[in-house]
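Ticket closed. Logging final result for DUF5715 family protein.
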Amino acid sequence: MKISKSRYILSFLGATCVLALVRCAFPSVANDLSHDAPSPSVADSCEAQVADGKVANGVSSDSIQSVDAQCVDDYCLSDSAKLRSRFFKADGTLAKNRIFSVPGFQVSFPDQNDVQLEAAQKHGVKPVVDREDAENRKSELVFVGGNMYFYVDRLRNSIPYLVPRASVLLQDIGQAFFDSLQMKGVPLHKLIVTSVLRSKADVETLRGRNGNATQNSCHLYGTTFDVCYNRYKTVEAPGEQRRAVRNDTLKWVLSEVLRDMREKGRCYVKYEVKQGCFHITVR
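Final structure:
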């Protein structure tokens, strides 16, 4: 028993000496790691500033207004705070961010047909001849139907199909538009899709009465869709009467969403004046 105790004491002393040497060689191992985290008061202050709209959408450079850079960094470390403050302020009231629109629609969305056509040919399918040909190409295309984010208008010169890449883009635009409306305190509205995949026969018919329709249309490839900016579908429960919202207000919010998508490199956008729509091609 005495031998066992002696060995135990020697082992303990040896370990203590080793730790002491490590601490002497590397003093930082003894630092209190809790000092690296922002204090609760700083985190709360940052959350309050974000909730008040001083930092729109987290750290958007377009909306930062006199906010300390360290505060932005500290706030970004708090995912839970970001989730709580995305739609609501710290006191639980609905957060309402400002509507900025874009500097100019034709300036912000200048992507002409030649630019969009290059992306369409890269990511799209071989142009379909007619509707029968489109039905035989379902392995390459996905059906585009109305959902909670957008409404598909009555299609007269196109077919409700897109390549998967473009379908995801349309879904993301619709969801981002919904989120933006809620964050700005605007009653919810659905986007209206007015044109999707066109066959060669559709293009020839359309060219007879639409000067903007080109023979080599991006719509032939299933990568392109049109979203109108002067009509929207109001989202309301049966019997509910939502307050009226001007189409211009909704257009401004939509333009912010499309500008962000375009700047992220996800799409090309052309502002169509005569047709009253945004002409969008996936990248």
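Strands lie at 142-143, 150-152, 161-162, 189-195, 224-228, 233-234, 267-272, 277-282. No further action required.
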